[in-house]
Amino acid sequence: xxxxxxxxxxxxxxxxxxxDGRTVLTDCIASQVALHRLYGGVxxxxxSRRHCEFISATVKKALLDAGKTIDDxxxxxxxxxxxxxxxxxVGVNFAKGLAYSANKPLVPVHHLRGHIxxxxxxxxxxxxPFLCLVASGGHSHIxxxxxxTHYHILGHTVDDAAGExxxxxxxxxxxxxxxxxxxxxxxxTGDPKAYRLPVPHVEGKYNVSFSGLKTAVLxxxxxxxxxxxxxxxxxxxxxxxxxxxxxxxxxxxxxxxxNGAKQVCLAGGVAANGRLRQLVNDGAQxxxxxxxxxxxxYCGDNGAMIAAQGYYEFKxxxxxxxxxxxxxxxxxxxx
Length: 335
Ligand code: KG4
Ligand code: ZN
Prior knowledge:
Elements: E1 2-7, E2 12-19, E3 23-31, H1 33-37, H2 44-66, E4 75-81, H3 85-102, E5 106-110, H4 111-122, E6 130-135, E7 140-147, E8 150-156, H5 162-172, H6 179-187, H7 211-227, H8 233-259, E9 263-267, H9 274-287, E10 290-292, H10 303-315
Parallel strand pairs: 1-4, 4-5, 6-9, 9-10
Antiparallel strand pairs: 1-2, 2-3, 6-7, 7-8
Helix pairs in contact: 2-3, 4-10, 5-6, 5-7, 5-8, 6-8, 8-9
The protein binds 5'-O-[(R)-(carboxyoxy)(hydroxy)phosphoryl]adenosine and zinc ion.
Residues 10, 115, 136-138, 163-164, 166-167, 178-181, 184, 268-270, 272-273, 300-301 line the site of 5'-O-[(R)-(carboxyoxy)(hydroxy)phosphoryl]adenosine.
């Protein structure tokens, strides 16, 4: 079964065709990163307008690259939540028009479920149940993936998402957007022990909090400015990365140990972080759990992950009618 999927929830206009949830026939991304970098972050209004401009051509290119026409596709999937609402609505409306004109079923996909489904593209043998940390620009959840469409949230951030913390710290350090790759790159030559950053206290065994950590980095920069000294950017980037990756890995592994998880996974943009991957890999092996990490190209937003999840949503009977609306927020375990 072939699913064409549209993803437009943030700053990537992405369209893919995936067969049976696992085989990628094409995965096209029109990235807006260079545009938003000028402003130091995603400007929602600009993102929506760019999606409007790029979406038809991206769909056309995806079908062309796959050597298919819309008639060869069995369903149209689309990210309908959560995300920047103006951006989401562009994809939802386009997908509706496409499904309507081609007389195909319309499958609504939750963006974070899509991030988790990216793991199926990299690891065809992976099947639920497994434990997954989904960490992106807007969310940080520790989720028990019970089956392809059933989730149980064990922990979440009580303030900033992990990716958001990377982005804000990058900005504080004068590093370009997106912050995750910039901080990771600067950290390569830094000493992770150079700055002593706090471990934030948080209620809830598997919850995380990054707002205090972000403020601690800002305080280091402000104090240096007041003293007229320079911050060592690689050292501060490395110290921050070590702390945030340490917290995320520790909470995920604690949840894995408590729940006897046999399979431990990472998903979302922050899953591209090398230090986090290393810590989770090492820690899960000690627990005797198998680790599954998404290929780097499937960590960030893409259409293939939405098509992969679209397949499982379709099989579960999750078909929308043409009144489908976009939603800025929606829990991953919605029914
Ligand atoms: O999943 P994603 O592409 O979009 C959202 O759904 O938000 O995640 C984007 C986030 C950004 O905050 C970005 O800075 C972060 O993922 N990110 C990283 C890395 N690459 C991207 N964070 C840490 N290390 C990275 N290598
Ligand atoms: Zn995302």
